[in-house]
Design goal:
Layout lengths: L6 H18 L5 E2 L5 E2 L13 H22 L8 E4 L4 E8 L6 E14 L4 E4 L32 E4 L22 E3 L2 E5 L7 E10 L3 E12 L3 E6 L11 H6 L9 E5 L5 E7 L12 E10 L5 E8 L4 E3 L22 E3 L10 E2 L4 E9 L4 E13 L8 E12 L3 E9 L7 E9 L10 E10 L2 E5 L13 E4 L2 E6 L4 E10 L8 E6 L13 H6 L1 H33 L5 H16 L6 H6 L6 H4 L7 E14 L2 E15 L13 E6 L3 E4 L6 E11 L6 E7 L5 E5 L2 E6 L4 E10 L3 E4 L3 E7 L2 E6 L5 E6 L4
Parallel strand pairs: 3-13, 34-43
Antiparallel strand pairs: 1-2, 4-10, 5-6, 5-9, 5-11, 6-7, 8-10, 11-12, 11-13, 14-15, 15-20, 16-18, 16-19, 16-21, 17-20, 21-22, 23-24, 24-29, 25-28, 25-30, 25-31, 26-29, 27-28, 31-32, 33-35, 35-39, 36-38, 36-41, 37-39, 40-43, 41-42
Helix pairs in contact: 1-2
Length: 776
């Protein structure tokens, strides 16, 4: 991408920020009893109103408004100059060339402009060559925030009535100097232009700063030739091509250029943003790496900044000390709205926690977790308002782009299998592989712990996997913490037991499985440290849900647009109005509000949204690790984490799953002894069929395939239906006629589905060893 980033991404971030703030009430400021303005961000609407559908509706409106404003720019009468703030320098760059064959010295180069004040009914301009006779030059200068330039009163400055353009009125007694409060000041410079044969051209940048409100027009440039002769040159900037009428299109008519015109309004805040990591010597960035950074905000404007919010294109950034209340329903990292990437910036280090005063600077610590692969562009868009302004308050944007090369680190996958010994339990298998390629040596990954967040399940470690005595020499100690080392290109699979929580508590539990010992006792309640671990996961889930809903909405819009184009006839005005009315009624209806916001009353980025109380069938896995990375010839230790969200333990329905929703287990004796001279032997077999689904009934047909070397006695074929979580035990007998080794698994289950009956065969063995007593 370009250094400034993709302009379309910046516009999308602006539109989405505006839409979310409208829905969340962030753009509404109301007068308080003391007469001051209260910040709209401090008064959030009910969480049920912060729905994705409402934000998408506002986003459509904002995009339509942006298209309308873009069309209006092409019309003659609707174009207006850019609005700029008082006491903020403007930069004008132009190219100057020497056509002579000798070197030319230009001094006192300054911009030529005029500024008209409607309040004072006066205009200051330096376009006329008027000087004050007997004037004594002074050395008064001006300096402004955010600029190192020194500003001076322009030469030949005079004062005229604001509605006058007559040169005859510009007399000596109308001149303005440093002591007469000029309406604007300029910077000055000097250059030496080489002869034309030596390419005597260069780019010159000059600054001008308005000091009063009004209409500013930059006219050209004035300079002194070798300190002997004053000269001036007027700028000529062609205006845009007019496309409003057919005549203008045919004649390629151009409108008036507004590039050098500005509307000067009262002071505004102006934010400068700088971002740097705490450890600047570390150069390598790995996938999933969590690194501490600092954000420095400086208000270089002349008005306090309030309601500072940050919008990003990815949920990489997480502010520290967020959600200090510990409420599971509260937002993570000061998030606003359902997207998970719009946050209120906590200016806790300033004089006023809600304002950033002029000239004030504040440092804000945050943690960044990188994702993806290759070079990633991280867009950060800051929006802030002028404190004490009218309703709605004026606002500004500040852009910051961070380009980061991300190297691979660890891949993580997981699978679940029902336990065949205990009802309700499952075996969790977590597979991790080290894919690092950022350096030549010390490519190990050190696993610190596996953390599982769930409201209805806890996880324990299966013994015998990590032997501290040395059977698996992969244990290592890094930073005083027991870790499990994975070498380069090594793959490790760890197994855990998922057990339902029997207590009646409705809080989210965290199972912290470290590698310090074989026994691990899960925590039944969330501590502050555990909640910090899942904050990135909470925001990633909210962001992916919002992006998915927005993508589906845009696909549907394109489909409707294509259908309209195929019809070949535009809609009537009445049809458009009816469509808008029906859509508005649909948006206001209770059924249109998405279920999580309507019933749960939780923020989309909260812990309760990650682990909802009505989703009793999923777990979330976090793997915390550390690695050794290099930078500036030294090694550094960096932490990281990988996530797996919404791993289904017990699915609700079987609509989106291809596997069998039933679990099959058996109870039998695996080793038998019998004297076959007395006849065949019959042994008990109890087959248990369990419904894995939590909310759906499963109808099935049970059958046993006949075998030539033994027989089944009992209910070998029947039709049954199991409710969610229920099971049925089928007692049978197996009749053996001779000694041998037999696989008695011959059960077949057939489940009716939409396309017909689907049979399921189970790829495991129930082996029985039968020995003849007479042969011993």
């Amino acid at each position: 991408s370009k250094k400034e980033g993709d302009e379309s991404i910046w516009h999308d971030l602006m539109n989405c920020t505006t839409a979310e703030l409208r829905v969340c009430g962030g753009m509404i400021s109301t007068p308080t009893t003391s007469g001051t303005l209260a910040s709209g961000l401090t008064k959030q609407p009910p969480l049920s109103d912060i729905s994705t559908d409402s934000v998408i509706t506002e986003l459509d409106k904002e995009e339509r408004d942006a298209e309308y404003r873009e069309r209006q720019k092409r019309k003659v009468g609707s174009r207006a100059p850019v609005v700029r703030a008082l006491s903020e320098p403007l930069v004008v760059s132009f190219r100057i060339q020497n056509p002579l064959g000798i070197e030319v010295e230009l001094t006192e180069i300054q911009l030529m402009a005029s500024l008209s004040s409607s309040k004072l009914e006066l205009k200051h301009t330096n376009e006329y060559s008027i000087t004050k006779s007997g004037g004594v030059p002074t050395s008064k200068t001006w300096n402004f925030h955010g600029s190192q330039e020194v500003f001076h009163c322009p030469d030949f400055m005079c004062q005229l009535p604001s509605d006058s353009n007559e040169t005859s009125l510009a007399k000596a007694n109308t001149t303005v100097d440093e002591q007469s409060n000029p309406f604007f000041v300029v910077s000055k410079t000097a250059v030496n232009l080489a002869p034309a044969s030596a390419d005597g051209s260069m780019t010159v940048s000059l600054r001008i700063c308005p000091l009063v409100e009004g209409d500013l027009s930059i006219l050209g440039v004035r300079f002194s030739l070798s300190g002997q002769l004053w000269m001036q040159h007027r700028f000529h900037v062609p205006g845009p091509l007019l496309q409003d009428t057919q005549e203008n299109k045919s004649n390629r008519a151009r409108g008036k250029s507004l590039e050098l015109l500005s509307k000067i309004e009262p002071e505004m805040p102006s934010l400068n943003v700088s971002i740097a990591p705490d450890d600047i010597s570390q150069e390598t960035v790995l996938q999933g790496q969590t690194r501490e950074w600092r954000m420095t905000l400086t208000n270089v404007g002349y008005s306090p900044a309030s309601n500072i919010v940050l919008k990003t294109n990815s949920p990489w950034l997480n502010f520290k000390d967020s959600n200090e209340s510990g409420n599971e329903n509260s937002a993570i990292s000061y998030c606003i709205g359902p997207s998970g990437t719009l946050m209120k910036v906590p200016c806790k280090g300033g004089v006023d926690k809600s304002l950033l005063q002029p000239g004030e600077s504040v440092e804000i610590p945050f943690v960044m977790r990188t994702s993806g692969g290759g070079r990633q562009d991280f867009y950060m868009l800051f929006r802030y308002e002028r404190e004490g302004d009218s309703i709605p308050p004026r606002h500004r944007w500040t852009r910051k782009l961070l380009s980061v090369p991300v190297y691979p680190s660890v891949t993580m996958s997981a699978s679940l299998m029902s336990s065949y010994s205990t009802k309700g339990q499952h075996v969790l298998s977590v597979e991790l592989m080290n894919y690092r390629s950022d350096r030549d040596s010390k490519l190990e990954i050190y696993l610190n712990k596996i953390c599982i967040a769930s409201r209805h399940f806890k996880v324990t470690k299966l013994a015998g996997q990590v032997d501290s005595a040395g059977q698996r020499p992969l244990s290592a100690s890094i930073e005083g913490q027991s870790s499990f080392k994975i070498g380069w290109q090594e793959r490790v699979t760890l197994h855990y037991l998922v057990v339902p929580i029997q207590s009646n508590t409705d809080q989210v539990s965290f199972s912290n499985l470290t590698f310090l010992s074989e026994m691990s006792v899960p925590e039944m309640h969330a501590s502050n440290g555990d909640k910090k671990v899942v904050e990135f996961m909470c925001r990633e889930k909210a962001h992916e849900s919002f992006i998915s809903a927005l993508h589906s909405h845009r696909i549907e819009k394109e489909r409707l647009r294509a259908e309209q184009e195929q019809k070949g006839q535009p809609r009537h005005v009445a049809q458009i109005r009816r469509a808008k009315t029906s859509l508005s009624e649909q948006d206001l209806s209770d059924d249109h509000v998405s279920t999580p916001f309507k019933h749960l009353k939780v923020h989309p980025t909260s812990l309760s949204s990650l682990c909802p109380s009505d989703a009793a069938s999923s777990i979330n896995i976090i793997c915390c690790w550390t690695a050794i990375v290099g930078g500036d010839g030294q090694d550094n230790i960096t932490p990281g984490q990988h996530h797996l969200r919404d791993l289904i333990v017990r699915p609700r329905t079987n609509e989106s799953r291809k596997g069998c929703p039933l679990v099959l287990t058996a109870e039998y004796d695996s080793r038998l002894f019998h004297g076959f001279e007395s006849g065949p032997m019959e042994k008990d077999l109890i087959v248990t069929i369990r419904n894995r689904l939590s909310d759906s009934d499963v109808e099935f047909e049970f059958s046993v395939d006949p075998r030539p070397d033994f027989d089944f006695l009992g209910a070998t074929s029947f039709h049954w239906s199991l409710s969610g979580g229920d099971e049925i035990s089928v007692p049978m007998k197996v009749k053996f006629y001779s000694a041998g080794v037999y696989n008695i698994q011959s059960v077949r289950l057939a489940i009716p589905q939409a396309g017909g009956t689907v049979p399921f065969l189970f790829p495991f063995q129930w082996d029985v060893v039968v020995e003849d007593i007479a042969a011993q």
